[in-house]
Amino acid sequence: MEGKNSQLQQRKDDALPRGTGNLCQWYVDQAENATLRDVEGNSWIDFAGGIAVLNTGHRHPSVVQAIADQLAKFTHTAFQITPYESYVALAERINQRVPIAGKAKTAFFTTGAEAVENAVKVARAATRRHGIITFGNAFHGRTFMTMAMTGKVAPYKRDFGPMPASVFHARYPNAVTGISVEDAIASLHDLFSHDIAPQDVAAIVLEPVQGEGGFHIAPAEFLTQLRALANEHGILLIADEVQSGFGRTGKLFAMDHYSVQPDLITMAKSLAGGMPLSAVSGRADIMDAPGPGGLGGTYAGNPLSIAAAHAVLDVIDEEQLCQRASDLGATLSELLHRARRANASITDVRALGSMVAVEFASAQQAQALQQQAMARGLLLLTCGPQGNVIRFLYPLTIPDTQFRQALDILDSLLSQP
To answer: What is the pTM of this model?
Structure first.
């Protein structure tokens, strides 16, 4: 007799389009902190975190309580119709903590792609320019504008026709493929020469740590030169921190590791502990560029999600999750570096706090590790333009004993010839 997972998979294949692909052939029934349980009672250690959404873990008690408390009041009014204090208070809290020079303002949305789209709208309104420059292997979302900004064709752009105009891609520094900071900056000058005049560029958008692109970390010198170039031409600098924000890198934001400050920051994912919420923060004069009604959305700043985000910020501070990210990441990195010395298939290890990745010579090797780990009860994700990178996105609240159990599984698998 077929199990529940198989039955659900058949129903899924019959009811959903094939474009909604799934990594797992099992179906989750319960989740708590860093543990997932399926409908047949099997469990996994979650090193995927809902794709970087669960820095505070599944169903953190403080987040659950905050949602329950808000649920007893109201679930939706549409902020642009009937506003509520919790939205304003969360904006005030984030304004105090974003690495933005001077006074900051924040607007809330629902998804990461929506945040990036609105950052583009703000930048264009503030500069009265149209051009947007992003980078190869970047990921910014699946809407048409953010697809155009994403620096990878398959599976994100393939089959979907012409992309929006005025989006251009420069090269992102990558030590593995030999792209230096000088190469990356030169590619921007090439764009200015061949594709778009700098005075027509509204913004340069980058991930300080590329997420889907393989967890490549922007060198400090690159950001310094990028900031200088943007200043020279009156271009805004936008940091996409949808994946890297809220403690993952050992700081609240990855940009906190740098002396350079962006003009705008986008955020989502772990902002609300599993609830859909995103935001754009930026310099007040820039954020004020769109007129009333130019920013918003029916579900933007949903009150349940806002309540969850307040709790997330409290948990990050009370449980010192930024420091824990640094500690856990250092422990994992040590294991991976040790494995690299003994395993010729490992070509690189990259880490900023708990934004950790290990790169293999081939996608097949990364996928084999992923499948073997899942068979042992550990859920991992791949990334990178060739799919040859394993990224680690465990909850920062994971118990020490469970983290060590996961590392033992990894160590055992990476030690195999």
So the answer is: 0.96
